[in-house]
Amino acid sequence: MKIKTILLVSALFSAPSIADVSSPENLTFERPQGESVMVNGQAFVKQAPQPFSLKRLFGIEAAPTLYAGELLSDASGLVSYEASGLILARTDEETAKRLAKQHGLTIVSNVGGIFVFDAPASEELLALNAALQTAGLNTQLEIFSEKMKPE
């Protein structure tokens, strides 16, 4: 019984040094590596290896790109997302057809004036979304996580 008590007390006293929980910075997650991308006003990290670039080092690199199928993660790196290539826009039917033809989009559906466009896989989504917003549309790029993936 005496040995069990000694082992228990020594384990309790040595636990903080073994776990090294004395400093809070040891309990944080590392930030995900990759390129920062803004989608619908939210910051995501594009999960792609980035080679060394002097332009990036000096902050003169071109804007980030995003294509359908590319993987993103939130700022914590805990939730993964996939760019779907779908764009939602509120507009009338005539404008939707004109812009779809102009930008090479396919109209997937229309419910109550909200159109779902499907962009080709080769189309850069951030630039396309900006072009549609310049044309006066209120748009949103669709990204899916494992929890919010359509069946």
Automatic annotation (TrEMBL):
<dbReference type="Pfam" id="PF18492">
    <property type="entry name" value="ORF_2_N"/>
</dbReference>
<feature type="domain" description="ASP external chaperone">
    <location>
        <begin position="34"/>
        <end position="150"/>
    </location>
</feature>
<protein>
    <recommendedName>
        <fullName>ASP external chaperone domain-containing protein</fullName>
    </recommendedName>
</protein>
<keyword id="KW-0732">Signal</keyword>
<dbReference type="InterPro" id="IPR040536">
    <property type="entry name" value="ASPCH"/>
</dbReference>
<feature type="signal peptide">
    <location>
        <begin position="1"/>
        <end position="19"/>
    </location>
</feature>
